[in-house]
Structure formats: structure tokens, C-alpha cells
Amino acid sequence: MEENGRLIKFLYNEDREVVAEETSNGTITRYIRGLGIISSDSEEAKTYYHYVSDEQGSITHVLSEDAEILNHYSYDAFGNIIEKTEKVENRFCYNGEMLDPVTQQYYLRARFYNPVIGRFTQEDTYYGDGLKLYQYCQANPVGYVDPSGHNCGTTQSRYNSDEEQHPKANAAGGYQSATEKGNSKTRVV
């Protein structure tokens, strides 16, 4: 991706989460993840940052390895940054998701979310026809999260076990969402 005239390469894990990035000058930053983003480090830049998040997974602070507060963020319900203090560059914000600094939209694996309009900018390719193809979190971003861009769940679902939280591959080449227990749907991707 080109960002402000510089080329940035991203490395993704199996859940399509960014786990590393490399800038055009060769600096590599690794992102350590748990239930969300926990920390980042770069040997070349000799930096280590710890991310503090709220109950929705939104990054509220970025700390140095000495626990100095470097960045502070506050958000409205839909993810617009309403208060921001930054000493270091950070691309992870609302719900711990990657913010594109050029478009000011969040990358949610399958499509982009625009917090200004509170909707996705591409239609939902999994559910096909319908009236809510661009809707984000059933218009309730306080009670729901949608890290995949396709399937929202309660904010509590962020803390469920891997088996409950992540899709399972099936023989049809699609996946079965474990959040739709008892009423599972298989979608081919």
C-alpha cells in the first residue's frame, strides 16, 4: 500500500489481521496479538509499545516500554476519534482495527467501515440481496462488534473461546459461523 508517498507492506495472519509491516526504508514492525492488539516492537527503530484498550477493544492509550503515555484516544459510539493526543504514529484505533490514514476508514478484513456515516462502504457479499447490505453492527456499535466485516457479534463475543469466536472451515470450501449456534449457515467463499 502506498501511504503519503511511501510504500508499506503488510503481513497478515490466518484471520487476516495485520501481524507485521515493513516500510520502504526497511523498518519492520511486529504486532503481538491476543484477544486484540497487545503490543508492537521494531528492532530497527528500537521501539516497543504497549496498547491499552477498553471493553470494546478500542485503543485508548499507547504506552512506551517505560509505561509513559505516548498516545491517547477517545471515540464516539461509531468510532469517530473525538479526542486524540499522539507522540508516535499509530494505525490501530477503534475496536483495535487498522485505520487507513488517507481515507480515514477502518479496514475490517472484508471491507472498509466509514465511522463518519456509520456504515460500510462496500456491500455485504455474504448475505446478497437485502436492505442492510451496508449496515454496521445492526446500527448498534456499543453492543456489537464486527471485526470480519461480514458477521457482527456482541462485544462479549470478542472474549469467547477460539472455537466460538472464529469461523471453521468446512468441506464445501466455505465456513460455518460458530456464532450462529443451532442455526448455522454455510457460505462458500
Tally of domains: 1
Measured between the Cα atoms of the first and last residue, the distance is 24 Å
Structural class: mainly beta
Order of helices and strands: EEEEEEEEEEEEEEEHEEE
Strand line-up in the sheet with most strands = 1-2-3-4-5-6-7-8-9
Beta strands, count: 18
For the sheet with most strands, the description reads: 9 strands, antiparallel
Number of helices: 1
* Global mean pLDDT: 83
Radius of gyration: 17 Å
Helical coverage, percent range: under 10%
The low-pLDDT segments are 161-189
Morphology: globular
The fraction of residues in strands falls at 35-45%
Protein name: RHS repeat-associated core domain-containing protein
InterPro entries: Rhs_assc_core, T6SS_VgrG/RHS, TEN-like_YD-shell
Keywords: Repeat
Organism: Roseburia inulinivorans
Keywords:
189 residues; mainly beta; 9-stranded antiparallel sheet; 4-stranded antiparallel sheet; 1 helix; 2% helix; disordered C terminus
Can you tell me about this structure?
With 189 residues, the chain is an all-beta fold. The protein has one domain. The protein has one helix and 18 strands. The strands form four sheets. A nine-stranded antiparallel sheet has the order 1-2-3-4-5-6-7-8-9, with no helix packed on it. It has a four-stranded antiparallel sheet with strand order 10-11-12-13, with no helix packed on it. Pfam families: TEN_YD-shell. Keywords: Repeat. This is RHS repeat-associated core domain-containing protein.
